[in-house]
């Protein structure tokens, strides 16, 4: 069995979209989410902007794949592509 790829989420303390994204990931079996609080660390905010070219949170990576934000994560799940991605398969 392949180990689940690393899940990284850029977020802030008070972000309802971050909470929603985390709830969906946990419902799909993700135990470990590496959260990067960009509201506490300006250097990480700059890193997020450079990596994603987006200013909004959450910005989610599953392995090396940039999923995007909460809406994109939900769309990926609805399309049946989230679970394969979490299983380490390319979609």
TrEMBL record:
Instruction: Identify a single GO molecular function assigned to this protein.
Output: glutathione disulfide oxidoreductase activity
Q: Which stretches are transmembrane? A: none
- Give GO terms for biological process: cell redox homeostasis; cellular response to oxidative stress
Task: Report keywords, A-Z.
Answer: Cytoplasm, Disulfide bond, Electron transport, Redox-active center, Transport
Q: Which InterPro entries match?
A: GLR_AS, Glutaredoxin, Glutaredoxin_subgr, GRX_bact, Thioredoxin-like_sf
Keyword Transcription regulation (UniProt): no
| Domain (Glutaredoxin) ranges | 7-67
Entry's Gene Ontology cellular component terms: cytoplasm
Gene3D superfamilies attached here? Glutaredoxin
What family is reported? Belongs to the glutaredoxin family.
According to its UniProt entry, the function of this protein is described as: Has a glutathione-disulfide oxidoreductase activity in the presence of NADPH and glutathione reductase. Reduces low molecular weight disulfides and proteins.
Q: What is this protein called?
A: Glutaredoxin
